[in-house]
Amino acid sequence: MGDPLWPLLNAGLHLSGSHGSTSFPDVKGHTFTRSGAVAISTAQSRFAGEGSAYFPGGASDRLSCAASADFIFTGATSLSISFSLYLLAYPAAGNQCRIVNIGTNGSGSSFCVALNEFHDMGAYVPLSGKNFLFATGGEVSLNTWQDFEISVFNGTALMFKNGLIIASRTGLDMPTGGTSNIVRIGGDQSGYPTVDAALNGYLSELRILCKWGRHDSAYAPASGPFEEGFSLNYARAAPAFPLVQPARPAWKAVRQSPPALLLDAEHGGRGRIVGTTQADGDPDYPVSRRVRLLRQRDGALAREIWSDADGNYAFDRIRHDVPYVLMSHDHTGLFNAVIADGVIPELIP
Fold first, then answer.
1. What is the DSSP letter of 244?
2. For labelling, which of 26, 155, 339, 340 has a CA lying 20 to 30 Å from the CA of 67?
3. Residue 267 has what pLDDT?
C-alpha cells in the first residue's frame, strides 16, 4: 500500500501528535517551526485519536519552513495542495487568510491558497495582474471538518471539497521562475493586512505537490491519515495448466516425446520461476513491467521479459541449480526498481 505520487511529494504534514506538542514533522524531512502559540491539540481530530494543529488566530500564529529549492514551480504546469480544515472564525471584512503560502507576496514564483471574508476558498499567484481560482458559493463552514484540495493539470485548475468539485478554471496563471521558496502555513507575512489575516481553527493532513496534480475528477474522501511511501510487490503465481487435456490423435501409435529444450549451454535447464508484478493498493492491482533475471553469482543477464496486462510473468527452462536475482523496472519513471534476491527456480516436472 502507499501513495502512488509519493516520489513527487514535496511536503506532507499529518499535523498530529500528543496534546500541547510543538513538533510538526514533515514526512519529506523539511523542518517546520512555529511562531506564536500554534500547537498540537487533541480537542479536534480529523481522524480519531490523531489530534491536529491548533491556530489560535493571533497575528504571529503560523508555521514556517525556510526557503528551499524543493518548493519551486519552475517549468511546472501542474500542482496540488490539499489539507483538512476545522475553521473557528472567518477573516474580518476586507481581509484574506492565506492558509498555505509558498513563496513571497508580489513574486511570480509563488502560489497560495486563501480564505476570504465571504467564506470562499481560492488559489492564485500572489502578484498583481494574475488571474485566480475562487469558489464563490460560501463553501467553507465553521465548526466542522472539511477536506479541501486544489489540483492543477496543465493549467486547468480544480478545487475539491470533501472529494467533490466546487470550482474550476482553465488557463490558471501558474508560478514561474525562482530558485527557492519559503512555506508559511496559517497566515502570510507580506506586510499587507488585507492578505495577512491569521487562521483561527484546526489544520490537519497537509500535502504539497509543486509539479504534479493529484485528482482530476471527484473522489472518495480519505478514511484515515494519508499513507506514506509506495512500493511494488511481487507474488509467486502457480503455473497455468489447462483444465482439459487435449486428446492425442488416434493415428499416433507411439506417445509423442516432450518438446526438446532449446540449446542454452550457459543458462538453460529444467528450472522455472513464475510470479506477478503488482502495485500496492486497496486491493493490490497488477501492472505490466519489464522483469530481468540475473544470475546471482556474477550478475549476468539470463533472461528479460515483460509481464502481461495481468502482471504475470514466467521464466521457463532456466538452470534449476543456481540462485537468481529478479529485478523489475518501472518504465513510467516514477519509481525505483524492485529487486528480489536469492530466488531459487522450481524444477519443471
1. S
2. 155
3. 83
